[in-house]
Amino acid sequence: MSAIRHFYTLADLEKVHIEGLLTQADWLRGHRTLEELRGRAVICLYLAPSLRTRVSMELAARQLGAYVVTLTPGHGVWKLAFDTGQPMRGAEAEHIIEAVGVLGRYGDLLAVRAFPERQSWERDAKDPVLRAVMEHSPVPVLNLESTRYHPCQAAADILTIRRDAAGEPQGPVVLTWTDHPKALPVAVPSSFAIGITRMGWDLVVTHPEGYELPADVLETCRRFAHESGSAFAVTHDRTQALRGARYVYAKSWGRLDRYGDEQREIAERRERGLERWIVDEQAMALTNEARFLHCLPVRAGVVVSEGVLRGPRSLVLEQAENRLHIQKAILMDLLSDG
Fold first, then answer.
1. For 107, left (φ over 0), alpha (ψ -120 to 50), or beta?
2. Which pLDDT does position 206 carry in this prediction?
3. Which end of the chain is more exposed for a tag (fewer CB within 10 A), N or C?
């Protein structure tokens, strides 16, 4: 069985564990019809919309021989309540405690996707939905993106870089903040930063003032970098950060000190002229022929120029494909009897 019960964040895994998943994913790339999970049932619970995650997850389970049941609460399934200690007088007909208890008796693994409410960072920082599911589930839980983390995406990103570099990247990886019409969650950039530093690769995070990632994420990255002897830096100087970069990961995220006040934050972005944080040809020219990465979906012309996004140095489609392969490896890891 796996060394971990739930797949919640890459911070829970040792580097050797991640490397094992990457190796397994590469092998699974060429095997689309297997019986390793024959007779197993994977139940996917989507509390947030999805395209790549839903399709790649269902195909991953089916290609391993498992049954798949996909549920979207509020659409043919009872809406779920999460708070305790108060009467359920709202639209929610069932509580997550009983729902997870039942689903855990039907299936062998629960895969859950839940976005933040974005009303209070103090509340969302506790990742209440995923933690409630993990607490009450009798079977392993796979995080398909929560308020805090998106470990499957980060694992696919690492796999993409490792395959492109034929090993470790020969030069720094840069995670750059970008503009966006919305204040987005921190799950993807947090998980990417944790994953890269866990692998012992050099990482530079660059963003405008005020857009710091959560303090505990930064502390985890510093610890991993110290343990491996790699470099980790955070800077507001994007020009300097991009110089010599081999991989550029673009992602927008919202300010934690403006959490729940998106209108104010977006207005401040316009006042500060943060549209200039787009990853375009001029930005990429500063790098050492860097490859471009983004988790998708992406707003062309806002986050990244069309030329960079669809140009020869873009790896976005490889990243998306690798979601399928790494999730097969994760499912086998969590459900293997060996």
1. beta
2. 98
3. C
